[in-house]
Amino acid sequence: MVNRLQSLAPHDHAVLFYSDIDHKRELVFPFLQQALENHGAAAYLSSHESLGEVRDAMKYWGIEVDKHESSRSLEIRDYEDLMTAEGGLDVAKINQFLADLSKHEGSVRLASDPTALAKRGLADEIVRIERLLRRHLRLPLTMVCPYEETVADLKSGEFLIKMMRTHSQVVFLNLALTLA
Fold first, then answer.
1. Which residues pair with 155 in a beta bridge?
2. Structural domain range at position 107
3. Model pTM?
4. How many alpha carbons lie under 13 Å from residue 93 in its C-beta half-sphere?
5. Residues 63-92: b if buried by 16+ CB within 10 A, e if exposed
6. What is the domain count for the chain?
7. Among positive and negative, which fits the CA dihedral 113, 104, 8, 89?
8. pLDDT tens for the chain, residues 1 to 180
9. Is residue 150 part of a domain?
10. CATH number of the domain where residue 82 is located
11. Is 180 a domain residue?
């Protein structure tokens, strides 16, 4: 599955369902690291991991976090930065974040995990944002949206179906699908 993510191209928008945080990191960190090693940029956006925990885990996996953050080729952000004062997702902030990322030279890769937001009842808002992004991104970035597999059952499985409709690639730990 690492090779599947590594082969994603600009404008690809994939969804990844993972069973635990270590499996997610085994797939997502090499995906991000590839952009950094090729003088591109990477971003990691999470709703349920502390930024310190993410930085430590990336360092453990061999990503030179301090170097890349100081050169501004790596951004590690919390979803709270992209929320409205009322606690919803802010489309304008998300669009600005993505536009700023796409200005980097070279390949730009983003891993965006809103699992905790989905569990907090924001599944419909997440689906709305995923639809706005479209199956093939308008911006020249490559995006993977990892979700803990437990959220696939939200709304009687409707969340999983909507994620399959809003992404060009679907990756489960033992299965990958390309959708037209």
1. none
2. 2-154+163-173
3. 0.91
4. 12
5. bbbeebeeeebbbbbebeebbeeeeebbee
6. 1
7. positive
8. 567 888 999 999 999 999 999 999 999 999 999 999 999 999 999 998 999 999 999 999 999 999 999 999 999 999 999 999 999 999 999 999 999 999 998 999 999 999 999 999 999 999 999 999 988 899 999 999 999 998 988 888 899 999 999 999 888 765 555 655
9. yes
10. 3.40.50.300
11. no
